[in-house]
């Protein structure tokens, strides 16, 4: 079993960091990549797995500590899985509001029954920068894309993501509830099991 007393979270996304910290904080001392570097590695992979590993290795390299990365995104059925690994960059780096506006526009004539989507999270944990055996866990969260934004909690695409099991948008969920049922929560549950946490 892998043991360590601290771990770097390899994310520059404040919303994501908050969620990962809430899920892990009680179990291990979590540090943030921002303590070590402000430079975001280029996400050159073609899959969530490749990008998660790349971010984790980079964080382990700059910190000298074990590192955990999350690569995540929204896969929309009608768009053939887009924006997928390009979710953060969907509107060419203009940010969450522009990403959401672009998605609403892409689906403006698409009826409710064809608006299925899933959030994907892949977590990669490396013990050191050259770790030959990263631990990989994935979580999916099925829902639908709304016709307009609802709610102000969370981050990213949360205001557009309808959560059938709660009958509200992801941005209308309390943080603790999202952290129990989200794609990231599912991936994290597996990771904790693998680590014996
Ligand atoms: O790479 P890091 O530094 O972790 O931060 P990032 O924001 O660039 O993260 P990703 O590359 O993994 O891109 C994921 C994007 O998918 C979206 N996303 C992922 N998880 C989400 C969630 O729980 N709620 C809403 N949007 C989410 C959001 O727009 C993210 O920016
Ligand atoms: Mg990123």
UniProtKB/TrEMBL annotation:
<keyword id="KW-0378">Hydrolase</keyword>
<feature type="binding site">
    <location>
        <begin position="155"/>
        <end position="158"/>
    </location>
    <ligand>
        <name>substrate</name>
    </ligand>
</feature>
<dbReference type="GO" id="GO:0017111">
    <property type="term" value="F:ribonucleoside triphosphate phosphatase activity"/>
</dbReference>
<dbReference type="GO" id="GO:0000166">
    <property type="term" value="F:nucleotide binding"/>
</dbReference>
<dbReference type="GO" id="GO:0005829">
    <property type="term" value="C:cytosol"/>
</dbReference>
<dbReference type="InterPro" id="IPR029001">
    <property type="entry name" value="ITPase-like_fam"/>
</dbReference>
<protein>
    <recommendedName>
        <fullName>dITP/XTP pyrophosphatase</fullName>
        <ecNumber>3.6.1.66</ecNumber>
    </recommendedName>
</protein>
<feature type="binding site">
    <location>
        <begin position="183"/>
        <end position="184"/>
    </location>
    <ligand>
        <name>substrate</name>
    </ligand>
</feature>
<dbReference type="Pfam" id="PF01725">
    <property type="entry name" value="Ham1p_like"/>
</dbReference>
<feature type="binding site">
    <location>
        <position position="42"/>
    </location>
    <ligand>
        <name>Mg(2+)</name>
    </ligand>
</feature>
<keyword id="KW-0460">Magnesium</keyword>
<dbReference type="GO" id="GO:0009117">
    <property type="term" value="P:nucleotide metabolic process"/>
</dbReference>
<dbReference type="GO" id="GO:0046872">
    <property type="term" value="F:metal ion binding"/>
</dbReference>
<dbReference type="GO" id="GO:0035870">
    <property type="term" value="F:dITP diphosphatase activity"/>
</dbReference>
<comment type="function">
    <text>Pyrophosphatase that catalyzes the hydrolysis of nucleoside triphosphates to their monophosphate derivatives, with a high preference for the non-canonical purine nucleotides XTP (xanthosine triphosphate), dITP (deoxyinosine triphosphate) and ITP. Seems to function as a house-cleaning enzyme that removes non-canonical purine nucleotides from the nucleotide pool, thus preventing their incorporation into DNA/RNA and avoiding chromosomal lesions.</text>
</comment>
<dbReference type="GO" id="GO:0036220">
    <property type="term" value="F:ITP diphosphatase activity"/>
</dbReference>
<dbReference type="GO" id="GO:0009146">
    <property type="term" value="P:purine nucleoside triphosphate catabolic process"/>
</dbReference>
<feature type="binding site">
    <location>
        <position position="178"/>
    </location>
    <ligand>
        <name>substrate</name>
    </ligand>
</feature>
<dbReference type="InterPro" id="IPR002637">
    <property type="entry name" value="RdgB/HAM1"/>
</dbReference>
<feature type="binding site">
    <location>
        <position position="71"/>
    </location>
    <ligand>
        <name>Mg(2+)</name>
    </ligand>
</feature>
<feature type="binding site">
    <location>
        <position position="72"/>
    </location>
    <ligand>
        <name>substrate</name>
    </ligand>
</feature>
<keyword id="KW-0546">Nucleotide metabolism</keyword>
<comment type="similarity">
    <text>Belongs to the HAM1 NTPase family.</text>
</comment>
<feature type="binding site">
    <location>
        <begin position="11"/>
        <end position="16"/>
    </location>
    <ligand>
        <name>substrate</name>
    </ligand>
</feature>
<dbReference type="InterPro" id="IPR020922">
    <property type="entry name" value="dITP/XTP_pyrophosphatase"/>
</dbReference>
<feature type="active site" description="Proton acceptor">
    <location>
        <position position="71"/>
    </location>
</feature>
<dbReference type="GO" id="GO:0036222">
    <property type="term" value="F:XTP diphosphatase activity"/>
</dbReference>
<comment type="subunit">
    <text>Homodimer.</text>
</comment>
<keyword id="KW-0479">Metal-binding</keyword>
<keyword id="KW-0547">Nucleotide-binding</keyword>
């Amino acid at each position: 079993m892998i043991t360590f007393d601290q771990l770097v979270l390899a994310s520059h996304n404040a919303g994501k960091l908050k969620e990962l910290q809430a899920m892990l904080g009680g179990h291990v001392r979590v540090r943030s990549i921002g303590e070590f570097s402000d430079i975001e590695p280029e996400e050159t992979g073609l899959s969530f797995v490749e990008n998660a590993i790349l971010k984790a290795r980079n964080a382990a390299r700059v910190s000298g500590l074990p590192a955990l990365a999350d690569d995540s995104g929204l896969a929309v059925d009608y768009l053939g899985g887009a924006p997928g690994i390009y979710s953060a960059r969907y509107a060419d780096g203009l940010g969450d509001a522009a990403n959401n506006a672009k998605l609403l526009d892409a689906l403006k004539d698409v009826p409710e029954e064809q608006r299925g989507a899933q959030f994907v999270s892949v977590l990669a944990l490396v013990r050191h920068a050259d770790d030959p055996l990263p631990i990989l866990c994935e979580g999916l969260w099925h829902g639908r894309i709304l016709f307009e934004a609802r709610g102000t909690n969370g981050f990213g695409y949360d205001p557009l993501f309808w959560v059938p099991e709660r009958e509200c948008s992801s941005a209308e969920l309390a943080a603790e509830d999202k952290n129990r049922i989200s794609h990231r929560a599912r991936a994290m549950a597996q990771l904790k099991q693998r680590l014996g946490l």
